[in-house]
User: What shape does this take?
Amino acid sequence: MNAQDLPSSPLLAFERQRAAASKEPGPPWAVRAERLRRLQRLLVDNEASIARAIDADFGGRPAIETELAEVWPSLEEIKGALRHGRGWMKARRAGVGKWFIPARAQVLPQPLGVVGIIVPWNYPLYLAIGPMAAALAAGNRVMVKMSELTPAFSALLQQLCTQAFPLEEVCIVTGGAEVAAEFSTLPFDHLLFTGSTAVGRKVMAAAAANLTPVTLELGGKSPAVITPGYPLAHAVQRILAGKLLNAGQTCIAPDYVLLPRDQLAAFVEAARQEARRGYPAGLADANFCSVVNDRHYRRLVRELDEAASRGARTECLFEGASRDDERHRLAPTLLIDPPADCGAMRDEIFGPLLPLVPYDRLEDAISFVNARPHPLALYWFDQDTGRVDEALHRLPAGGVTVNDTLLHITQESLPFGGVGASGMGHYHGQWGFDTFSKLKPVFRQSRLNGMALFLPPYRPLMRRLLALMKRY
Assistant: This one.
């Protein structure tokens, strides 16, 4: 199929996919695996073109970051599905109540039909391919709405997918806010949205009209907590690694740091050294990513200026210039003890600004996190395993990495998703397969059973049996 053959509206594409799903409601593993291999070849054969397109959209994104944070994890999702998908789709044994033996029960994974995926701009490849791989492994048809903020990559992925898949299997949709609004109103069998909480509310409201189940991968303010006595140099290195990847434009980037008050000065100095070691050319360093567009760049500058005007001390971590307005490049900057109600502490930052919030007692840090909406990620730096376990028990979060950042998202065996304001539902690995499947319960009655004893007219024997069942 050529790009010009794409339907004129998402609704027409949806209708074709729905009709195809009705004709083949449960494709065998061989069909699913072949679709996954086509997706795999698409990535492997076009990696350089993908990196160039994303670089163009960002106005400067290192190819190595695209390879590390998008291509590699996308291939891992596909390879994991190819390794385990045949097993995931098998019927799963389930027990029966003792009063129903020798009947049998099982859970049968069944494709939902047509899955919709709405992709954000910050990781446009991975956040399209990851859920797409899970949906294809589960036997579904897939429609993907790409972000209008990454037009070069969106057009490239549409072109590549139209070459690799018939429309009835995979459809990539491009366009602006009007197309996105229409997309979210389609009666999908499941809709996955990754993006901001504000837009997530609109998507969920639109899906509710069709009773479409949704998975919302949102964001929020993910804290990093450094406990007393933890080696500060290691904490700084790992926090900056998580923060400066993609210039902080990551939904699970450390959003602010809670640390002992007496370690503030040492943190600042260690962060300055680490940033200059990793990016010796500062804003001109080819390994440092630009902010995606002028609107987001201006938003970050406003948050930085507001925090400074309201008393926060700011520390630029690069030598030389701290801003490049024309290229939308903003140096990583620490905001030290900012007001709790300023923009940088109220909203998800999504950029290379890092507030430092000092605490006097660890209990104060825990209370600080719990007083705010549940974060998508929590980073806890601690050598005391008992205290780690207590923190895991007391601090709700979508996911946790202990003594590092970001890495829980790369584990195929772990579900990825938010909680409360940071999202609902999850995917990755088998968790994604199950999200895009109906886990259909099946009860198989035995030829020898006592159900006739429970039919009307109700006799004294049935009442005695029922009393026995309630007792035991």
Remarks:
- The chain has a mean pLDDT of 96.
- The chain has two domains: 3-218+422-440, 223-412.
- The chain has 16 helices and 18 strands.
- The two ends are 63 Å apart (CA to CA).
